[in-house]
Amino acid sequence: MITDNQVKKLKRELHQDASLETAAAQAGMDPKTARKYRALDTLPSEIKAARVREWRTRDDPFEEVWGTVEGFLEINPGLKAKTLFDHLQRSDPGRFSDGQLRTFQRKMKFWRATKGPSKEIYFPQTHHPGLLSQSDFTCMNSLGVTIAGQPFNHLIYHYVLSYSNWETGTICFSESFESLSEGLQHALWTLGGVPQAHQTDRLTAAVNKPDNPEQFTRMYQGLLDHYGLIGRRINSRCAHENGDVEQRHYRFKDAVDQALMLRGSRDFATRAAYEEFLTKLFSQLNSGRTERFRQEVKVLKALPPTRMDSCTKLVVRVGPSSTIRVKHKVYSVPSRLVGERVCIRLYAERLEVWYGQRHLETIARLRGSDRHRIDYRHMIDWLIRKPGAFAAYRFRDDLFPTSRFRMVYDALGTQHAPTKASREYLQILHLAARENEAAVDDVLQTLLDDLTTISAPVVAKHLQERTAPAPMPSVEVAAVSLHGYDQLLAHTREART
Fold first, then answer.
1. What Å distances lie between residue 334 and 18, 52, 270, 406, CA to CA?
2. Could you give phi then psi for residue 338, rounded to 5 degrees?
3. Of 98, 74, 73, residue with least CA distance to 85
């Protein structure tokens, strides 16, 4: 088969006054074929295109029903070919076989290209240094990362500069405002400057609902104002408008996956080790963007003097059960705060309890919804006074610090009446709160292994024996004789005389 390049070479040789036989030999074709293309002004590809047939080799089996099909498509262009083909088969059983589906699909494809509705056009954009950054959350669960053998389900807040594609990210566990604030501020301070604008998708933590007159939430707008950023958000269901970060999601997760394969393990000893792994990977990805990144750094705005506190402040009242409710989750607080209003500073992974401008406690933030975290130390004093409330307490399972405490409670239940068993267990729990939970847990393990009768006094006795100070050793110091010093001084005087 003669190619376009062969014919072009033939023409060049002929223009240099080469003979037909020589030019044909140089172009790698027969002289008769060369004579043919010398007389033609077209290339082989153009001849092939001109020969494409425009007639059918067989009758169109859908010609009679195509008017009906077009009627459906004009009303709803989104109908699939398979749906309409099934409809034709049901309407006229036996007329169309399953083997004609492909023919029907080709006919519909041609109709959509020639008469169908116009398709959405994506317009490539020109990016300028320091103008725009984009961010979004991406789920990393599919990569199978584990921490100390336990699945580590998490998200990455992913930040990208649109011009240079410089990127960074932070680990988080929800698409909350606190995660957005910490992630964005970490990115800006790592970058060392501030671009003109920042764009997100329609995050509920940042963008108000359409019926709200304000485009962004009050807290997110305050964050933008603190750094002098112009906020942008994409249109609903138009993820391509945030295309830079969306594309980087795919490439970043692929890079993480490949790096984990190269590492030979997806397990990390600690979360800090995994964070260090991600930091190194971001540095490797950014190493190829140095030139464009330098151009961006020159035009970035300066950072503000300090970071903004990335927390949400809430004021809640402590209920009679010594608990507070924050974001549909229940947390216990010291019972002395019952009835008082406390200030909660809610961060991405913790919440702080403040009262009267004093920080009282830090509690790990729960993930998910309708969950609870009860600390027995907050209420043990009153549980001892009301042991009957323990058996049916709604959050009773939180009052077993370890599995051994639960085993002890079950053992006490077989030895005593329910109220007596609760009273004995609460006394043991009170020892753990007052003395040392780990030490009490060790004592319980010993008692369970020895099949010894367990009670609060027995546990207290063992605990005292373990914590009793060792007796002080007696030290005897012999009297010091100075006779040797006298002899030394006498010898010294004799030597001088």
1. 102, 85, 31, 23
2. -55, 130
3. 98
The secondary structure of 237-303 as a DSSP string is T-GGGGHHHHHHHHHHHHHHHHHHHHHT-SEESSHHHHHHHHHHHHHHHHGGGHHHHHHHHHHPBPP
CA distances from 467 to 9, 77, 307 (A): 98, 81, 47
H or E element: which one contains 10? helix 4-15
Angle between helices 81-91 and 101-114 (to 10 degrees): 120
The residue with tokens 């007052």 is 434
Contacts of 35 (CB under 8 A, 6+ apart): 20
Q: Which tokens hold the place of 139?
A: 């789920």
Backbone angles phi, psi at 474, to 5 degrees: -85, 135
Quick check: 154 and 173 in contact, CB under 8 A? yes
Find, among 443, 372, 364, 370, the residue nearest to 402 by Cα. 443
Query: Would you say 351 and 363 are in contact if contact means Cβ atoms under 8 Å apart?
Result: yes
Parallel, antiparallel or unpaired: strands 312-317 and 267-268: unpaired
The whole-angstrom separation of Cα 61 and Cα 100 is 9
Query: What residues contact 64, with CB distance under 8 A and at least 6 apart?
Result: none
Running DSSP on this structure, what letter comes out for residue 480?
P
**What is the distance of C-alpha 174 from the center of its chain?**
8
Q: What is the DSSP letter of 470?
A: P
Q: What is the pLDDT of residues 229-279, one digit of tens each?
A: 999 988 777 777 777 898 899 999 999 999 999 999 999 999 999 999 999
| pLDDT tens, residue by residue, 203-215 | 888 888 777 778 8
Nearest Cα residue to 439 out of 462, 458, 455, 422: 462
C-alpha of 122 from chain center: 28
Q: Which residues does 285 contact at the CB level (< 8 Å), separation at least 6?
A: 167, 252, 255
Chain centroid, CA 270 distance in Å: 17
Task: State how far the Cα of 139 lies from the Cα of 421, in Å rounded to an integer.
Answer: 47
Whole-model pTM above 0.85?
no
31: tokens are 């002289």
Short-list 151, 222, 133, 237, CA closest to 181: 222
Which candidate, 424, 422, 462, places its Cα nearest to that of 442? Answer: 462
Longest dimension (CA), the chain: 145
CA distance 405 to 400: 5
Count CA atoms within 13 Å of residue 2 on its CB side. 24
Task: Please give the Cα distance from 86 to 101 (Å, whole number).
Answer: 9
Alpha-carbon gap, residue 120 to 79, rounded angstroms: 17
